[in-house]
Amino acid sequence: MAMMRLRREDPRVVGSFRLHRRLGAGGMGVVYLGSDRRGQRVALKVIRPDLAEDQEFRSRFAREVSAARRIRGGCTARLVAADLEAERPWFATQYVPGPSLHDKVAEEGPLRAADVAAVGAALSEGLVAVHEAGVVHRDLKPSNILLSPKGPRIIDFGIAWATGASTLTHVGTAVGSPGFLAPEQVRGAVVTPATDVFALGATLAYAAMGDSPFGHGSSEVMLYRVVHEEPQLLGVPDALAPLVQACLAKDPEERPSTLQLSMRLKEIAAREAQGLSDGRPPAPRPVRVVDDRPTGRLDERYTERGGGPGRPQRTPPPRPASGPRTAPPRGPAGRDPGPRGAGPRTPSRTGGGGRPGSRPGGGPLRPANPRLLRQRLFVFVVVTLIVLLGIAAAQGLSG
User: Where does the record place the Protein kinase domain (predicted)?
Assistant: First the structure.
């Protein structure tokens, strides 16, 4: 919440509270940041001088403060103190640190569907406590909702009224903020808890879209739209749109209760947080590289990205150098056999100075082929016998 320095005309002390900063000003008076002797910070509202001279207003203000004392809920700013008999009546509520919902959306844009649902669920639960105390807020809007570290808080019960009271302070004057007023408030009919439900629906639409569902314009234009035109909810996530639409029904009897809203919004918030709702696109999944190579080549991509020695890998068959092979390369898995001819391997090698069964260049021996060994042993024995017989024959001829 923005703070401003005290002006020359501002009081420095009100009751037992010392004032430090201006928090804002509204139709009823000025709100200050104050603290008591123990250091407890409060938001203290001092009523305007012209209203303070109105005895009818003083009587209504006294009833409102009495009703506010009965509210017990974690979603409202607790009433700390009030002086109804002062020259300028005032009341102090618990100070709530954090920006208003209006400022949050104006600075950072619309909230995510999960956040809108979570805020709405908390506000609905808070309104249950307000209505159980026999009070209707009558001016619920984004600027009257503070986003504290402990959750949203409803503030400014300055025009709150007992359930069943009229919305007209003077003939033809509607109390509240255009665009968030319910149709029955504009007509001057009796206010009920459903009146706050309408305002909550307009507030959630603002949080999801970043704009009022009834657009912009003069007060007269806005009030006409609230009564006679349907809200524009383009931009509200699909998961929330039906519920928001129900809150903005023209007939109060067709709106859901605050308890129903709280339960439904909690369900939506849980689904949205898990990405299971159809109200918004699912969370992006990890991108896999897709190409036209045959399947089963994931290990090849892994080795290309530095699968390092000592890690189990499967190397795909190398591309042929000059034609198809007639037999697959043999040897330990993962070893590149190197460039060779395209023809089939022969049982033995000749030339090149290499030993039988050794790779050119003195590489490590390949596993022995039993059949090839038997053939070579047979040839060795036959050649040896022939040599021995030749030697014996030569010795006989010389003798």
Answer: 17-265
